[in-house]
Specification:
The complex is a heterodimer of chains A (about 110) and B (about 110). Chain A is about 0% helix and about 50% strand. Chain A has about 110 residues and is an all-beta fold. Chain B is mainly beta. Chain B is built from no helices and eleven strands. In chain B, strands 2, 4, 5, 9, 10 and 11 form a six-stranded mixed sheet that branches. Chain B has a five-stranded antiparallel sheet with strand order 1-3-8-7-6, with no helix packed on it. The model of chain B has no long low-confidence stretch (mean pLDDT about 95). The chains are: A mainly beta (about 110), B mainly beta (about 110). Chains A and B meet through strand 4, strand 5 and strand 10 of A and strand 4, strand 5 and strand 9 of B.
């Protein structure tokens, strides 16, 4: 049982480039989300999904796009990378809402130069 | 002012010491309280989960929630070098969209042999 799998683990981008961070879970979880972690800031929610075809914005959505075509996958797209998007990105999933346990992936370290 | 405040540390203790980690929060709607442990270059892993006020014990770990004071604590007894990590408190409100977590900034703990 792999849990939440993220790729790539490390990536360096040039300003203005686009890329997609991949996230997949094999626990049949309905809820999936993306967080970013910056020093001293904890984790902040970027986008979330409560099921296939349903997405919504979190606390810091600007510069990111998401889609959810299947239950298993929830990719995060950076449309035009900026240095301010240098961060560690975590994908997470849970069975549902209402305080269900949230499981995190191992993280993707992104540097924008 | 952040919604969840957590002393960043680092907190350095000798092996065998009792460790106390704390968070304060301002949102009275928070009902679910969690502690995550994060090792360097890894994703957060759930350590303790508490609903509403009260105490919960699991082995060497005890979580306490005092909703009247908006204060939560994690106690680690007989601390071990393997407990060296960053500890993140996280909270969520009942019925919030996407099961969103609000995190503290994390406390870095170092347990010296």
């Amino acid at each position: 049982n792999a849990g939440v799998t993220q790729t790539p683990k490390f990536q360096v981008l040039k300003t203005g480039q686009s890329m997609t961070l991949q996230c997949a879970q094999d626990m049949n979880h309905e809820y999936m989300s993306w967080y970013r972690q910056d020093p001293g800031m904890g984790l902040r929610l970027i986008h979330y999904s409560v099921g296939a075809g349903i997405t919504d914005q979190g606390e810091v959505p600007n510069g990111y796009n998401v889609s959810r075509s299947t239950t298993e996958d929830f990719p995060l797209r950076l449309l035009s990378a900026a240095p301010s998007q240098t961060s560690v990105y975590f994908c997470a999933s849970s069975l549902g809402g209402g305080g269900n346990t949230i499981y995190f992936g191992e993280g993707s370290w992104l540097t924008v130069v | 002012q952040k919604e969840v405040e957590q002393d960043p540390g680092p907190l350095s203790v000798p092996e065998g010491a009792i460790v106390s980690l704390n968070c304060t929060y301002s949102n009275s709607a928070f009902q679910y309280f969690m502690w995550y442990r994060q090792y360097s270059r890894k994703g957060p892993e759930l350590l303790m989960y508490t609903y509403s006020s009260g105490n919960k014990e699991d082995g060497r770990f005890t979580a306490q929630v005092d909703k009247s004071s908006k204060y939560i604590s994690l106690f680690i007894r007989d601390s071990q070098p393997s407990d060296s990590a960053t500890y993140l408190c996280a909270m969520s409100a009942a019925g919030n969209a996407g099961n969103m977590l609000t995190f503290g900034g994390g406390t870095r703990l170092m347990v010296k042999p």
